[in-house]
User: Fold this.
Amino acid sequence: MSEQLATLIAAPSAADLSRWLGALSRVSPAADDVARIDRIRLLEQLKSAASAAQARESVTFKQSQLAEQEALGLPARERGTGITAQLALARQESPHLGARFVGLAEALVTELPHTMAALTAGIISEWRATIVTRETACLTREDRARVDAHLAGRLAGMSNKQIADEARKCAYELDPYAAVARSRKAVEDRRVTMRPAPDTMAIVSALLPVAQGVALYAALKREADSKRAHGDERTRGQVMADTLVERVTGQPKADQVPLDIRLVMTDRALLTDDQTPARLDGYGAIPAPVARDLIRDRDEETRVRLRQLLTDPTTGRLTAMESVGRDFDGGLRTSVIVPDAFCRTPWCGAPIRHVDHAVPASAGGQTSEANGQGLCEACNYAKEAPGWRSQPSPGGAGESISITTPTGHTYISSPPPLPGAPPRATEDLVEPKERDLRPNAA
Assistant:
């Protein structure tokens, strides 16, 4: 190996990494199955090594940004704002996952040297490194190092479950009180979440203390077994799902739940057999017949409160909305939330909690549809950090917004098209990914 090549591998620049990425995209299939398996194994190791390199870069980046914010005179309580958001954008992840990755990176780089070495060598995946980090999070730095040393040399042959079990067992033995405290603290994180599922279904999940979770499932199962024993022809799963809805909502039947929905669709889809998909606020696209069913085919006992929003078939913009007010509330808030659908930060996908100015009011930005954007709470706070800028395109709500981070990187945020909207130009869909992820020329 030449000295030049050794230097290249030891300290590759961003341009070098870009060339490697291009080279990987041009790799032709191997000549035989033995070589293919070798390549697959090595590529998997390369992914792990890249994750380790990302972790090191992320920790250094955070330290540098904290020092820069301190130099700018930012109060100690505000330092750190927007840092994990920048890393999330670079990784094309949501801010929540970006923050988790930064926590993982800091633990690996500063507290788990053996696990980090295994990740760097491609012996374990990023997820297995995450398991070690997660299961030792309740320990002191010293005890965490002991678990890390105990697992050193053994991780290569262990499954995800084995790693979790062994790390958890060591944590219990080293500090049982910390494990109990962690368990009690976890109760504070109990919550219910909802996410879309295929075929216009939804997954509602509840994170509960174990006793409550077991009791809940057992009660639903008992009810299902009882009803089926008395001749109910539904499956056990169907009875359990319907019983959950009935008991939580207080309705006599699961399909008689009152509807309070915000449905965006074209007039053609509403009044004819047009197949243009509609969009259900908080869920996403649904087939036009399903949208019509939500409106037309409800039981007479079911109360339906429908906030219907129509789109112009030519422009795809909203045409039927509440009146526009002075602040981001009422019709003005609706005119921003509905086109945005979810948080406007790229790759975030969280529900909109705040509607705020793209260009801040302090910088002359107007409280208008054209200057509004829907954001989750975390992203709205992140953009208040020094060096963040947003600039909406002239079209207003439903159009793109350019987001520039303190390092000068620009990302284009485009909302999903409304039902009936004309297709975007190809360049609007593809080219910004290549152009806008580079540092600003300015």
The mean pLDDT is 80.
